[in-house]
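Researcher: Please generate the 3D structure of the following complex. Treat every line as part of one assembly.
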Amino acid sequence: MGFAMGYFRDNIERAAGYVPGFQPGRSDVVKLNTNENPYPPSPQVIEAIKAIEPERLRRYPDPLGRAFREAAAAVNGVGPDNIICCNGGDELLRMAFTAFCDSGRAAAYPVPTYTLYPVLANIVGCEAIEVPFPLGAQKAGEGEFNLPAKLASTGAALTIVCNPNAPTGSFVKVEEIALLADEVNGVVLVDEAYVDFAEETGVRLISSFDNIIILRSMSKGYSLAGMRFGYGLANKTLIQGLRKVQDSYPVDAAALVAATAAIEDQEYFRANVEKVKTERARLTEALRQLGFNVAESSSNFVLAQCKHSKANEVYEKLVERDVYVRYFNMQGLEDKLRITVGLAQQNDRLLEAIREILPQSK
Amino acid sequence: MGFAMGYFRDNIERAAGYVPGFQPGRSDVVKLNTNENPYPPSPQVIEAIKAIEPERLRRYPDPLGRAFREAAAAVNGVGPDNIICCNGGDELLRMAFTAFCDSGRAAAYPVPTYTLYPVLANIVGCEAIEVPFPLGAQKAGEGEFNLPAKLASTGAALTIVCNPNAPTGSFVKVEEIALLADEVNGVVLVDEAYVDFAEETGVRLISSFDNIIILRSMSKGYSLAGMRFGYGLANKTLIQGLRKVQDSYPVDAAALVAATAAIEDQEYFRANVEKVKTERARLTEALRQLGFNVAESSSNFVLAQCKHSKANEVYEKLVERDVYVRYFNMQGLEDKLRITVGLAQQNDRLLEAIREILPQSK
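Model: Done. Output below.
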C-alpha cells in the first residue's frame, strides 16, 4: 500500500466542505441571502437562449469562448488574450489555488471575507494566512477596512483581496491594490465579483503589473447567477498558465451565449446597477433608522450590525416570516446580518418584518 | 519569500496542458474527430431550454441538481444519493484526482487511454503509473485489451479504467472490474463516458463495492457535448467526499434542464444508440475492405490501423478534403486513426475520401 488507510486524502476526509447559502425551494419568499441581482437578465439574453440551435448543443462548445472574450475585451478596454472564461468566478478561484499554491506556497487574504478561500486552501493543502481587518475600528466609519499592512509581507504565493469585500461591502481603493502588488512577490488576485456596484475597477492595473488577476462574475451585475459564468483578466502569460489547470471545455454553449448577450447589453446593465445603488442607499438609511449600525456598502448587499438585539435571533424570526438574509456564525460577524439589496417591495417587506421583530423600533 | 521564483508552481510552469480535439469553425465539414453523437439531442431538450424562465437564470441553480439526480437514479436503478452532477465527465475526473491523489498517493491506469489522465496527475502532483495493454497482441483480435494483471498491484490510491476505452474502443467485462476493485486498496474509477454504446455497465457494482465510482457523460449517448454535463455514481460516502472538492454550483440551470430532459427521453436515446451501432458495424466492415485493421469497437468510434499507408499522411489528406478524424502521435498509436461514427452520409464521404487517398484500394 502506497497510501494512508482512507480512500480520501486526509485533509479532504477531515474537511467539512463549503456550505453555499440556502436556496429556498419556494419562489414566493423574500430571498435576500445570496446576493442575486433583483432584476431579470437582459431580454437579449432570453432571446439568445431561445435561439440556440440544436447543433450548438450536440457539438463541443468553443473551449476558449472567443465570442465572449471579444465582447468582454471591448467593454473592459483590454485584448481577448487578457481574458479567460470560467464556470463561475468560483472556478477561477479554484484554478488560482491550483496553479499557485501547494504545501510550500501559501495563500493570504484579509478577514472576514468570502469563506470559500480557506476551503480551497485546504483542498490544495496550502497554508491559509488570514490577516484580520481592524474590525474594532468599524464604528468609526472611515478606514476600518483598509488593507491590513501585514498583508504585503506574508510571503504568500497568492494574495487575495475581495473588492468590494464580502460580507462587509467595504471597498479598497485601486491605488492600494497597486501598492500591494508592488510589494508582494507572488500573485495578487482581486476578486471583483461585486465591482459592478462600486466606484472603480482595478482592471487598468493588468497592463502594468504582471502579477495581478482581476476576477469578474456575471452573477451579480448581469443577473446571471443561474448560468455560472465568470471571467478573469490578466496579462497573457498568467492567462495561459491558468488555462493549463482548467477543464478542457469549462463553459457550456448556453452559458457562453447568455453571457455574451448580457455583456453586450451595457445599457440594460447600467440601468439595473443604478437602480440597485438607489435602493441600497434607501435600505441603508432605513436600517439605520431602525437602530442598526450599517457601514457604507460598495456592493449589492449591506452588512447590518444589530445593536439592541441578537443577530441570530433576528435571522430566525425573519425566516419565520419567509424573509431570508444571511447570518455567519463567525468571529466578528456574530452580531451582524448580510442583507442583499432587493426590489423596493422586497426591501419594504424586510423592513416591515424587522419592525415586527424589534418591538422598540415600532 | 516563502516560495520558489516563478508565480506558478513548478509542475504547472513546466506543463503543456491538455490539448482538446480541434473544433473547426465551419459547420459544412465532415467532423469525425471528437466523438460527438451525429444525431441532435432529443426534441424535449430543445423544448426545455426554450421554456427556461428568466427567473431560473437570475437565481443560483440548485447546487446538487436534485431533478437530474432523481431522473438519473430511476434510469440507473440506484438512489439519488448515489449520484453527483458534474460540469462534464472531465470535472469528475479532476475531482477524483483532487480528492484521492497527491505526492504520496499515486494514480494508475492502462495505456493507451484518455490523455487527460496524466495531465490531471501532473496538476495535483501525483505519480501516474501507466500500465501498458498488451498492444502487440492486438492483431489477434481477442484479449488484446484485457486489463493488464499488474494494474491490481500498483498500490495506487486511484485506479482508472476507461471502459469502453478511448481511443481503442475496447471493452473490459464487468467481472474483471469487480476483481480489480476487490484486489486494490484504493478507489477504482470506471470512466464509462462511452458505455451507452457498449454491452453492459458496471453500475451494479456500486452497491457491493465501497471503492467503485462510475463516471457517465451526457455528451456522447445523449448528444449534449455542448452542454457539459456528466455525473458520477457511487456509494453515498464517496459521493459526499467528492462533493467537498467540487465548486459550489457546478452545473448551470440550462445544463440541468437540458440533461434532465435528455435522460428522461429514454426512447429517443435508445433509438439513436441503435442507429450509431448499426453504422459502426457498416463503417468497421467498409474500412476493413479498404485494407485497414479495425478492432471491434464498443464505443461510437473505431480505431483503424493503416497497414499500407502512413496514418499521419492519411490524416493530413483527409483534412485537405474537409474530413476531420483524430490522429494521436503517441506510442502504439502512430499507425492508427480514431474515427467517430457519423451519419451514414458522413461515413460515406469519409470512405470516399479514403478511396481517393489510397490509390491501391480504388
